[in-house]
């Protein structure tokens, strides 16, 4: 079975990673590769690591160019995908790596993005309770944000099992710079980021906050509120998420561990590490894996969960391909690597 | 006024940083430079950045070699400094960069370090309430740990002003690798640390936890308990601390901001940045500055404070020199730079 | 066709990379995984990025454990492989990632390694003239060093075509730290290597010098002598080689370009980039590709060639797997990726 | 003696480093701080590491704002400084960190820069033969480029002593990204530069080539031609220069060593390291030192010299301040640190 796939936003980091994965996908045939200002350029000049596709020419991101494929990946600035998706056939699988269709609550969307809500699509994080089923046969998929992917994988088992208090969650995450995209901004220059760390979007304003709360609340069956602080780390790829929550009275370390291990026992791409081994982002560079570890701190009455993903792979393009595979009934792991590239 | 200073542990990172600062101190004359296994070596082979001292020969770390100076810096593995200090004259200013004399509670020491408590010395963080006075004329000074320095600077104003709940503090900190010292361990190899992040000591077991709680509890006038997670970042120097606490009912953003700004209004080395500017570790590399910013997140009911220091300067050697200056009645900033080396 | 493969030295970087590639090889079945001091450990604790193999247990590096496989990879300290290889069946394909069997000249071996010469094996760089044929059906293969791989790919076309002077070659190469191995040495600590560069082995003493000269001389049909300076760069993977040579009288830019393009026109893993595009090591991280560019500097009368490889992939394990594929008659690219992992 | 100093281009890296050094200069009083598009901004928002100057406001780069100071530093795009300098009083010391006045040969200027030559000024590299004398009392100084500084320090002693062939010089240098400035360009993003190396300006076209040849030719007393290849390294600061030349017949290792050691015996900021110790850029970060080492490779008939500087300090702002000190008769090392900030 050969699937024809078009990829938009191909000059950016998310689009490049989608192409990297599709180039190794046994069932995918890469059709149109589109961009905006870079239309007309060789891909090799923009994504020089994609050797097998170096001589492909980017075309304009238009409905005409994207139409006629089995699958269309949209890696566009938010606000741009709804309009394009509306003009693509309902039989085409449209996978949006942007934010437009992630939030179910129009009010939350409008508060954090300041524009009308475009509606919500099935959410491409199959490891959340009940989500894999919703992705089977879906024709529209919203790819989660990278911080929500790691945060939801970190904390969902505890909330789904009723072990955690809903109003005392703190998440601090460190992301590689590719998460900020390829637009040249002074604070993202190598001279600025190498050798240092800094926070950003502190105090509740980060757009991933409502997305994380949406997922945790669904798992908990009650409103969960979080404090989320992202930081920028001197690395190109990877997210390390440190997530903590107060545990409910009577919950002990064994119950916590059992909840997480049970939740992910059959997952191909999420792993609770053996006790005593802590995750490191380099375990998962270029891979679709998420590695977790947790500890119960009785002194603080908290569980601390560390989760690592590659923000471009499991956090964006890998999760997108995994969701595509599920939607189309392919092997869920097709085109995805289990092994990270390390050291 | 010329002060003769001996420096032990001179082949390590803390000792090297003390020497770097003393080489630029207008009143200090560097006497004995001592080491353990590296005694007999040229300093230039071990600390090749200390050009002015390159031809100095390291001698053994013995009481004989350290005695006879006005000031003795001890940068030794914990457990080693108490015995040496006991044999140095009571008139000698002994500044211990190690952990031995930081904790006032013998039970906390024994729980976290597993050895008998050596007693506590005046704590070299002059910005804490009442501490500068205790350092004046002191002959024994315990240099704070690097994580406690940034964590206490981050949260003390809020506790001292009675604005924060004592039992819901979460601190996540990212440190450069120099904080782990110069002993060659596989997980600290460049190949392992470049391009990745990882947590360690998760779940309450880190030895800096009781030290941070000690300082916050003293400021609060009640027992403060924290959840503390350190992470290792791919940079040589710097700590970014993200510290959050629940605010007491009725406390608003203005009250929070006022508490921090008032606390540090007259401090030469601690700065609350203008609103909207967030700290970055590269602001303070090689400098004795601590830069802070805070935000009130009404959604989570929390204050989030970001603090950056250079772990080797304000976090170790700079704090030590600052404390020495206070103890001896010198200009508090002598030998210390305000400017970081950036980019 | 399923090939059983044993991998020795599996706790090091070369062994880990062999395993990473074999885990994705369609025809390989990973048998014994061996180590020396780490025998008995879980692979997941030593190579935590190899998720699919995490629960495999390392066994001792003995002939007994390695025997009985179709292929044996030796990633051992130099001096160790000859003895083991001698005891393995002549029908077993033995691929030595170490130096023991690279040099054909016993005198050169003894001068640079200070031990008796173990003999030479077919040299696993199929892109050199005539080498692919020698690898077909071979049962013993010596994997080239990483610096020789990039240096020989950079300059061989010019020497093979008779365009370059043999006595005025200068090569300066920058390598990532994984090339120095996983043994914990102080100068390889992250604190030391991050943010800086340094040379080593300057002045002709580096053991890769005779290996590079051997290959270039064979291509030139006369003795080529080089000046080779390796430097250590703050990155985990990759080699950037800058290689220059004087061009013979009458040779022009077009002749130079034609020689390189012709030499690699049919190569699956070596690419001369389009004019004006220069290679960067990040193009090839995790990939078996070598990317080249050249320029003629008429002012200096020199050709300058830039070549990039991933030292662990094309420079070691990828070249080894490529050679294995050729020796066994498999698809030359099986298990190897064309795409780098970037950014 | 208090010197009033104005600094233009203060929002860039060169201007920022000048300010950092002047902030610690015992005789300098920082007057106007000027910029182009950032005029009107707080310095603290643009150079957040310059804590002592954080509240200073940048003014426009105009003759009016720069006039009336004893010293004016110009850190402007090339082409901009000649016009401004012409309008400043002949009694004002004008120090140009840009390229405009470095080359003595108008034809070379026009070939590499494509604009009319503005004339040449005394060249601010006091370690070159006869240069310190020319700087004493000078009122116009051209600050050398960063690559020329390290390349000329590396090779001048051999040419001045007549030990080297003039037509076979190869220089390969690795620079930190701050050398490329603060303008946001995609290839300088942290995501692009971290973890990789790349060459640029290959084949004789780099503008520093004629500047290096000018200095070497002056020392040699004959025309020296070089092959120069710069590369971009994943670090913010520092240059590692590998420079090699053929030695004249009859020259041996002792003669080479003696030439270099004699040349720099009395220099305060250049050091030939003890035999066997090789330079590393981290030795000199933030410092005005240049550290060198050399080796004679009899096999290739070449001397190889490694030189390290901080491109922003000795390579730009430090060299500028050192030259200012000489010109004004101040202590040559005032405001300059000998010690690097390491690790």
Automatic annotation (TrEMBL), chains A, B, C, D:
A Pfam match: Semialdhyde_dh
Major subcellular location class: cytoplasm
Alphabetical keyword list: Amino-acid biosynthesis, Arginine biosynthesis, Cytoplasm, NADP, Oxidoreductase
GO molecular function per UniProt: N-acetyl-gamma-glutamyl-phosphate reductase activity
Catalytic residues of the enzyme: 146
Record-annotated Semialdehyde dehydrogenase NAD-binding domain positions: 4-136
Top-level lineage group: Bacteria
Cross-referenced SUPFAM superfamilies: Glyceraldehyde-3-phosphate dehydrogenase-like, C-terminal domain, NAD(P)-binding Rossmann-fold domains
Cellular compartments annotated: Cytoplasm
Catalytically driven reaction(s): N-acetyl-L-glutamate 5-semialdehyde + phosphate + NADP(+) = N-acetyl-L-glutamyl 5-phosphate + NADPH + H(+)
Enzyme class: oxidoreductase
EC numbers on record: 1.2.1.38
Biochemical pathway: Amino-acid biosynthesis; L-arginine biosynthesis; N(2)-acetyl-L-ornithine from L-glutamate: step 3/4
Family that this chain belongs to: Belongs to the NAGSA dehydrogenase family. Type 1 subfamily.
Known function: Catalyzes the NADPH-dependent reduction of N-acetyl-5-glutamyl phosphate to yield N-acetyl-L-glutamate 5-semialdehyde.
NCBIfam families: argC (TIGR01850)
Record protein name field: N-acetyl-gamma-glutamyl-phosphate reductase
Organism whose genome encodes this protein: Arthrobacter gallicola
